[in-house]
Amino acid sequence: MNRRLWWKLCGLLAVGTLALFWLISLLGATTEQQMSFIARHHQETLRAWGETAERLYNSGNEQALAKWLEALQARENTWAAVVRSRLEPLAGSRLQEDFMDRFRLGRDVEWKIHLYFVENPTMEITFADGVTHFLVTLPQRMRPGTYLPEVRLVLKVVLPLTVLLIFCLVIYRHVMNPIRQLETATRQFSEGHLGARVRSLLGGRNDELASLADTFDRMAERIGDLILSQRRLIADLSHELRTPLTRIDMAISCVEEGINTQHFIPRLRRECDLMQSLVEDTLTLAWLENEQPALDAEALDLTDLVDSIVSDARYEYPDHQLSLEAPDTALIQNTSQRALAQAIENVIRNACNYTPAGGIIRVVLAADNGAYRLTVADQGPGVPPEQTELIFKPFFRACRDRENAPAGHGLGLALARRQLEAIGGRIRARNRPGGGLEMELWLPEARL
């Protein structure tokens, strides 16, 4: 497991946390900076007060100036005064010009106000003569940062919660979207839509959830194939059973009517044997396809096994010529004698069935790169090239419509392929240049 989702979530949380702290710091500094200056209309008010004080001062009417200052202090609940400053250097010292330009008794209305000081600062408006000043303690209503506690609450509580909720939503959607798609596909599959898949809906995603989607798709494909295979087997088995059952029904009717009873009893026996063989082969095929069993692993001499099967075929088909070419010994391990014997027997029996009387079936066993290759060549009619794979499908018979087609129900080669696959082998068919069909079986795990 590559833990891509783990690293994605860790990276997202790390980046999100850094972004959150950076955003809080930036917004806090920016907001405090913006809130540290007196509002523009309050600055204009302070300047207007300074102009009024200067006008009254220049008029020489100190009584009017004093009355105005008293009214201003009472109205704004603050302190205000007009003062004169004249700096006189002592002991031969000299004042620099830039110091005189910067010298103030109070703060300029455009200067930054410290929000964390309890006392309100003294503001100054310098008159035109440069030595007379209007001083006023900043009224409380003009003090900036009135909503600083609320802003700090927003920055320290509301903003982090909002950002965390957004991150949680992103993570939730990143995790839940494929899970929802998996849930939808599972529901569709359970409702009979066997083509429901998930991986293609996730695009280029490559993490644990994508692996889960791949696993689901493989499972869905496997189960879908099994269901379709079972449906085909049931349909084909029903079709194949219909004919012998009809014959049995007709024979029983004739027996009940007393028509040539001795003739129909052997016919009933043949039809029953055919049905029993058909059902057993179908159940074996279904078991191999659906269960994919792990067969018994054992060692055997392949030469002895093939020789025994060929000997049985010679006895069963006395009008055929079977030749066998094999090494003295061919030890093979980690295989199932039962499955291998049934597969080889089905292939040889199929070759004998399709080879006319007097024909030759050639069986060759040879070593092949640490394994063994068994070739069975007959002199039958062969199959059309496009049917060399179809003959391994259950109930498929290439010569179904030909006259004198051999009896059978089309399960022999299908069983042979499934049995070989169960032990790790494989089989293929091809037409021989001179006529006939050649079966090639590759048998793994050989020990020479």
Automatic annotation (TrEMBL):
Transmembrane annotation, as ranges: 153-172
Domain Histidine kinase: 236-447
Catalyzed chemical reaction(s): ATP + protein L-histidine = ADP + protein N-phospho-L-histidine
InterPro entries xrefs: 2C_sensor_his_kinase, HAMP_dom, HATPase_C_sf, HATPase_dom, His_kinase_dom, HisK_dim/P_dom, HisK_dim/P_sf, HK_sensor
GO cellular component: plasma membrane
This protein's UniProt keywords: ATP-binding, Cell membrane, Kinase, Membrane, Nucleotide-binding, Phosphoprotein, Transferase, Transmembrane, Transmembrane helix
Cellular localization per UniProt: Cell membrane
Gene3D superfamilies per record: 1.10.287.130, HAMP domain in histidine kinase, Histidine kinase-like ATPase, C-terminal domain, Two-component histidine kinase, sensor domain
Residue span(s) of domain HAMP: 173-228
EC code(s) of this entry: 2.7.13.3
GO MF, one annotated term: phosphorelay sensor kinase activity
Pfam families (UniProt xref): HAMP, HATPase_c, HisKA, HK_sensor
Protein name: histidine kinase
